Every structure is written in structure tokens, then in C-alpha cells.
Amino acid sequence: MSLTQQELHERILYPVTRVRAGQAGGSGVLIYSAPDLKHEGNFINIALTCEHVIDGNIKIIDEWDAVLKRQVKKDILEEVTVEVFDYEGSKVVSANSTTGKIIAYDKNHDVAAIRLNNPRQMPYVATLYPKGELENLKLFDDVWVSGCSLLHDPFSSQGSLTYLREMIEQKSYLMTNAPSIFGNSGGGLFHGSGYLLGLTSRITAIQLGFGVDVMTWMGFSTHPERIYEFIDHQELKFLYDDSDNYYSAMERRDARRKDALKSVLLEGEGLSPQSENA
Fold first, then answer.
1. Domains, the chain, ranges and CATH?
2. What pLDDT, on the 0 to 100 scale, is given for residue 181?
3. Nearest-CA neighbor of 101 among 120, 121, 81, 83?
4. Which residues of the chain have pLDDT under 50?
5. Would you state the pLDDT for residue 149?
6. CA distance 265 to 198
7. Which of 125, 112, 119 is closest to 98 using CA atoms?
8. Cβ atoms of residues 156 and 144 within 8 Å
9. What is the 3-state secondary structure (H, E, C) of the chain?
10. pLDDT of residue 183
């Protein structure tokens, strides 16, 4: 069933943000806005984007750990800027800039999650395409690419699914003929039903002499299976499961970090996690 004009605005255009990280920039998609269980009246707001959009704000350093008695790698995550747009119908009335914290990232999947420092409710957020219905995707399904092409204010381009599983560098993508260009990275690939399918992440370019010819009609978006893999591995299940919540997710992430540190300590002492339990 086709979406109405109002539904197209609310589900495909309004959730799209512009993301800036140092000298780089791209797009993002608001995916979560729910009451903050620890701060009455506030909301927790999360946006997804591509990791390569915010990669410049992730610093990996080697640092001596006095407890482990060894050099360890640590990531220093600088805040990024997220612009959320207010609309009156089809007109942008304001672009509201807020800082945000990178709460999770994965270079392999090229996905990152940002928590906005703005505690106000975001009235329009995207909804992931249901995991159990991914097998129903078909070629010729209507899709929309929605993002900030060349860092322009968000706009959407219509097309269709042209390949269901393109493998690039051992990673799966959806291919569409909805035009996309630099700056769309991190923006949404939306199914015609209004659900978020993936994040626009790659385009096709051919070297011609001293120039590059960009095939805007051969765009690639993170396969939805990889989006779910990222969310599950990063303990962010609350992004699609209402039975979970942000604080429970952060507790699980913290527990995993402690377990990993414990394993490192045991290895440093010539033990294994199994021998500790014996």
C-alpha cells in the first residue's frame, strides 16, 4: 500500500539528520526517542549513521595500564554535531544543531549510534524493517533514499531495489537505483512501506582519465541483516525491542567490558577464565 504525502514526510523525510564530525559530514537517521527512565521529563534520543562519517572523531591510542602492566589500546570518542530539522509541511523552518556522543561504532559494519545531548522528544523517528520479514524483500520493491546529499538540507529520491545481496569486501549490501551522492552516507534507505531498510553507505565510481564518473543510480546501502547484527552485538536491542531499555543496555555493555578486562587479567597471570572456576 502506497504511503500518503503526509506519511512520506513523517516516515521518510522528517527523521533524517545532518551529521558533522570535524572536517567530515554526512547524514543520519533518528531511530529512537523514548522517555528517560532516570530523568523525568527528558527523553533519550538516538541516531544511526555510517561509521566512516564520524570516523575522524574516533581516536585510538596506546596507553600504559598500571593495573594490567601493559600497553592497551583505548578509544577516545569526541562529540559530533547533529542537526535536526523542523518542518512546516514541506518547508524547513529551522535546523537545530545539537552535540551528540558516540555510544557504539563498528568499522566492519560501517555503522555507528549517536546519543543526542538534546533531551527533548523527537516527534519523528524511523522504524526498522521487521527482522522476521526480511525474506519478503523483492526486486522492484519501491524504495526511497533520504539524506543530505553534498550536505544539503535533507531530501529524498525514489527508486527500486535492483539487487538484494551485493557482496563488497565480504560485506552484504542492498543495491538500488534511487540516486545518491556524496553526503548521503549515513542517511536512510527506506522501503516503500515506510520502514528503514539500511543506511546509504557506498556509490559506484569509475576512473576516467584524470576524472571520476559517479554512477548515482548504482547505490549501496548496509544490508538490514547487518544493521540487526550491529544492534545485537552492541547490546542496543532497545532500538527495536520495546521490552528493553537504554539503561539495561548500558549495563549489559558495561558487564561485557568488565568480563573482557577480567579475561585479560587472567591471561596476564598465565591463567584462563576456565581455570579460575576450577
1. 5-244 (2.40.10.120), 254-278 (no CATH)
2. 84
3. 81
4. 273, 275-278
5. 92
6. 38
7. 119
8. yes
9. CCCCHHHHHHHHHCCEEEEEECCEEEEEEEEEEEECCCCCCCEEEEEEECHHHHHHHEEEEEEEECCCCEEEEEEEECCEEEEEEEEECCEEEEEEEEEEEEEEEECCCCEEEEEECCCCCCCCCCCECCHHHHHHCCCCCEEEEEECHHHCCCEEEEEEEEEEEEEECCEEEEEECCCCCCCCCCCEEEECCCCEEEEEEEEEEEEECCEEEEEEEEEEEECHHHHHHHHHHCCCHHHCCCCCCHHHHHHHHHHHHHHHHHHHHHHHCCCCHHHHHC
10. 81
Dihedral, 193, 194, 196, 198 alpha carbons, nearest 10: 60
Q: Which residue has the cell 523514548?
A: 34
Q: In the structure grid, which three cell numbers stand for residue 185, read together?
A: 552516507
